[in-house]
Amino acid sequence: MANGLLNSDNLRTTWKVKTAAANVYVAAQEKLAYHQGRLQVWETARDETINKIKSNGVVIDESVLNDMGSSTYSNSGRQPGVSVNTELVRDLNEANQKITEHKDKVRAFDSWVQFLSSATGDLELTLSDYLYFFGK
């Protein structure tokens, strides 16, 4: 939705509002806390997924191995196979992507909190600025 607002050809994209620096500082602190919390959630999810992969995520196709000593064994040329549960791999990739995303946002909002901690007076915000700090 925000992208539609920012990419439109209307004058709203050029409007600016004055907002107390203290309000932007508080908003930056809230965004920082939110992304720190999401980072912890995704790090926990990643660790749990890694443990699942280690404990039961490896799939071994032993069908050829089970038949090797029997009289019905035929040498099909197929080697035993080992794979990782693809659903767990997908979960691990998602967690890693989200960790990167939230680490980047933690760094950004931490920088804003530091910068805004000494800001006074009013700041002039564009629509994009406002959505960055106050958007849900």
Explain this structure.
The chain is 63% helix and 13% strand. The model has no long low-confidence stretch (mean pLDDT 86). It is α+β, with helices and mostly antiparallel strands and 136 residues long. The chain has a two-stranded antiparallel ribbon. Strands 2-3 form a two-stranded antiparallel sheet. The radius of gyration is 26 Å and the shape is elongated. It is built from 5 helices and 4 strands.
Biggest sheet strand order reads 1-4
Q: Count of DSSP E strands?
A: 4
Give unreliable regions as ranges: none
For the biggest sheet, the summary is:
2 strands, antiparallel
Order of helices and strands: HEHEHEHEH
Keywords for this entry:
4 strands, alpha+beta, two-stranded antiparallel sheet, 136 residues, 5 helices
Summarize, please.
This protein has 136 residues and is of the alpha+beta class.
Secondary structure layout plus pairing:
Elements: H1 2-6, E1 16-20, H2 21-57, E2 58-61, H3 63-67, E3 81-84, H4 86-116, E4 122-126, H5 127-134
Antiparallel strand pairs: 1-4, 2-3
